[in-house]
């Protein structure tokens, strides 16, 4: 109806000023360590053929069975808004032959992902991730480097109240041996039909069941880490050794279940201590069978997805985001037309020199313009009038302290 307000769809995260700048700072902080380690940007569509996710992510997962935004497009194709990034990256790597160049192919991405979850604090239906994928080598040092890159991102934001949990899901042999005993164990439990069906698809899912009676029963279930093959065990030992070398502390969590089915070998999660129920700020691991599953050659891979929304919440909870770092350096108040021209020239020079400058437009009276300067949070303010122009000197006022000093217009750059 005309005139009625329209609201954002339920459960989406969106960022408006001033918080949007903090969000961008968090995202950039998470990306930078990947760039420094030689990862290159891959920019992919937010929708894909539905089959990519049913096959890639797995039908036993909540993500695929309950949370996908799937629709028929106008050509009657089944399309799904991407719930995660790894499957799409593998699809693109195969399609563009990136696996035929130098290995590992090292890629980073950042963008929106979509899961129709029940919205709550830190859990959204559209959310943001920064992710990386290293495809084509199964050197344990890469596992440690991938983990270190995530860790460096969180540290760059200033986070410290989080822990890294790691485990190994082993190779196919390890999982097959474990599965035999786990299936036997599960057969002795009383389960409803839906849970039995899930367990048949992937018995590990039961470790992730939140119902107390299932949790209690699963406390005695056989653990995958006790079934690791010799080579899986050796690989995992190496990963831990490299993490020790890097000084990255971790806790072993042999009951970790990731929400996606493609994981093998090293898997990990970063858990923040101040976030309550949605405390996972990032996670990832190896997915050594995924590429072959999606029709590519049999290459291993490892990567992570970091939750930008949650990392921002974590930064706010820790009080490490300094809102002041997202404000302008200088606010110029011109009085009169000649001053306005001068202000625009000064602003453009200082901006070219890397400073952020705002100008009070609209020919407002000094008092109102001063209020605007105050509201903007800018570090310094100057007023440009006839006398300032003729003397080429301004009074530079530091907003926080109120302290003023006389500065030549030519020297503003060094003064601010
Ligand atoms: P994931 O654990 O499903 O992994 O998601 C990674 C991170 O995204 C989570 O740790 C969390 O911070 C954030 N996240 C997930 N769902 C939501 C939501 N509904 N609202 C807010 N934040 C959310 C993956 O997606 C894998 N693709 C990661 C990966 C890459 N593994 C290997 N390579």
TrEMBL record:
> Mind listing the GO biological process terms from this record?
histidyl-tRNA aminoacylation
Q: Which PROSITE patterns match?
A: AA_TRNA_LIGASE_II
State the compartments where it is located: Cytoplasm
Q: Which UniProt keywords apply?
A: Aminoacyl-tRNA synthetase, ATP-binding, Cytoplasm, Ligase, Nucleotide-binding, Protein biosynthesis
Please provide, in alphabetical order, the Gene Ontology terms of the cellular component aspect for this entry.
cytoplasm
What EC number(s) has UniProt assigned to this enzyme? 6.1.1.21
Residue ranges of the Aminoacyl-transfer RNA synthetases class-II family profile domain? 19-334
The family database entries (Pfam families) matched by this protein are listed as:
HGTP_anticodon, tRNA-synt_His
Please tell me whether the keyword Aminoacyl-tRNA synthetase is annotated for this protein: yes
What assembly does the database describe for this protein?
Homodimer.
Please report which protein family the annotation says this sequence is part of: Belongs to the class-II aminoacyl-tRNA synthetase family.
- Its protein name is Histidine--tRNA ligase
**Protein's organism:** Candidatus Planktophila vernalis
